[in-house]
Amino acid sequence: MTAQEVRLCGLLLREHFGEVVAKVGTHLLRSGAQNLRTIIHETGISLDLVKKSLCVLVQHGTCVFSAGRKGPGSPTEYQTSCDRILRILRYPRYIYTAKTLYGDTGELIIEELLQRGHMTMSSTVKTVADRLTQNMEEGRSMDYSEVSSAFSKLVETHFLQRCPPQAGAGTKESSTPATPPTPESFPDCYKVPHMTLIGRGKRQLSSEDGEDQRNAKKAKLDLETHGDEGIYWQVNFERFHLHFRDQAIISAVANKLDQTSSEIVRTMLRMSEVTTSPTATCTKPLSANEIFRSLPSSYNIARPILDQYLTLLVDDPMEFVGKAGESGGGMYVVNLHRALANLARATLESVVQERFGSRSARIFRLLLRKRHLEQKQVEDFAMIPAKEAKDMLYTLLSQNLVQLQEVPKTPDFAPSRTFYLYTVNQLPTARMLLQNCYKTVANLIERRLFESRESKRLLEKSQRIEAILASLQASGAEPEQLTEVEEMITAPEKQQLESLRVHINKLDSAENQVDETIFLLESYVNSTATSTG
């Protein structure tokens, strides 16, 4: 874990959970596993606040606790997970994916679970149904059964999973597992409980007088039982990551070849979704006959055309698809790890091109392809004048994008009898770029917070006026009254608010784009770790 990762984790925790939780979380990241007494002593935060902060971190899965390392009876120790905190950055993408696949209901289910860490199915269904009803026309409401159906679909496709049952803190095994539950370690991981929840979503009471009524109803609802008490659900991030990886591969094939090729790869990935393990280097072999039968009916592709497309995919230098045998009209696999390596490579080339120009990118690509070259060979192969090639190589070398390897002819390492070879080590370069991405996102978040802080007074005024307008509209006020309230914000203030909104939208968009690069590079680094491990 690097300083950039800790800084980004601190910013994410502060933005989502507040200053105190961020202080406790970053302290645990830097110090490793610690017991409650040590955390209080070293952070200088009160016992009550530390307990509440740890509860928040555990609730959201960013902290695990286990029996002390000094043996039975030693105090429970807490440890935060950097990877899990960094996933907060990807929350908008998880929610958007759920909306794309399962509509508004799926989007709100994922949003609620991400906001609250983990919830029971009945509690999630009620909350989501109420939120959907609130946005419907007067007289219409959302049935609980529709939300339950969407929830069950998310569980069937493994986007949601049960939280593993928790053992007591004093036992030897970890009370909250650091690794996500799998069907092998926890058989009921994707088993939906039978739930006795019948009814429809209810609208919130808008009047202040209804506060006591709401509290009374909430207390009454808390006492009701629906058959799923004690069974909590959480978002399965690994499943979302597999979906993102597959989408990246499909998108790359569409850009490199065409839409039909990408549809064939999509079909192959969909067919092997259940049979392929998350860390596998390639999918299980599929015959051309199986692929042909599973293609969407809208793609009216003849069998000979499919064979031609498969041959084209196998022969492509990107090697997204490989041939594994001849039976059943030919057996084909999607090379997952090779595809990730090629996508990471394309990202590195793109970064070099954007920062140092197309000629430097040409040298970089040449070194990736040829592995080791002397300076004279680089000049000749890249067809760049000696002086320019030398400058570019030294610039890339100073940025650690290119490495220099010495191969002596004699043991004395005399410069006149030594080969100086330039090379690119893709994995360390990807790791370095990943750290730069963490730094970039942290800078973007700090800039966004600064922009909001500078215009805090104006934002608060705007929110107050919007609240007044909403209450006036609800009570059926005259148009003149509404116009009078709207004019409380002057024209220059409106212009300033619009400018701020544009700036913050740009920063948000940049955060999401950098996160896409982070995801690709993380997937590549992790895939090399599993294939070599």
Automatic annotation (TrEMBL):
GO terms for cellular component: RNA polymerase III complex. Residues 164-190, 202-221 are annotated as: Disordered. Residues 212-221 have a biased composition (Basic and acidic residues). Keywords: DNA-directed RNA polymerase, Nucleus, Transcription. It holds the Pfam family RPC3_helical. Residues 348-424 form the DNA-directed RNA polymerase III subunit RPC3 winged-helix domain. It is found in: Nucleus. One of its GO terms (molecular function) is single-stranded DNA binding. This is DNA-directed RNA polymerase III subunit RPC3. GO terms for biological process: DNA-templated transcription. Residues 150-343 form the RNA polymerase III Rpc82 C -terminal domain. It comes from the Eukaryota. Its main location: nucleus. InterPro entries: POLR3C_WHD, RNA_pol_III_RPC82-rel_HTH, RNA_pol_III_Rpc82_C, RPC3, WH-like_DNA-bd_sf. Residues 8-66 form the RNA polymerase III subunit RPC82-related helix-turn-helix domain. DNA-dependent RNA polymerase catalyzes the transcription of DNA into RNA using the four ribonucleoside triphosphates as substrates. Specific core component of RNA polymerase III which synthesizes small RNAs, such as 5S rRNA and tRNAs. Component of the RNA polymerase III (Pol III) complex consisting of 17 subunits. Belongs to the eukaryotic RPC3/POLR3C RNA polymerase subunit family.
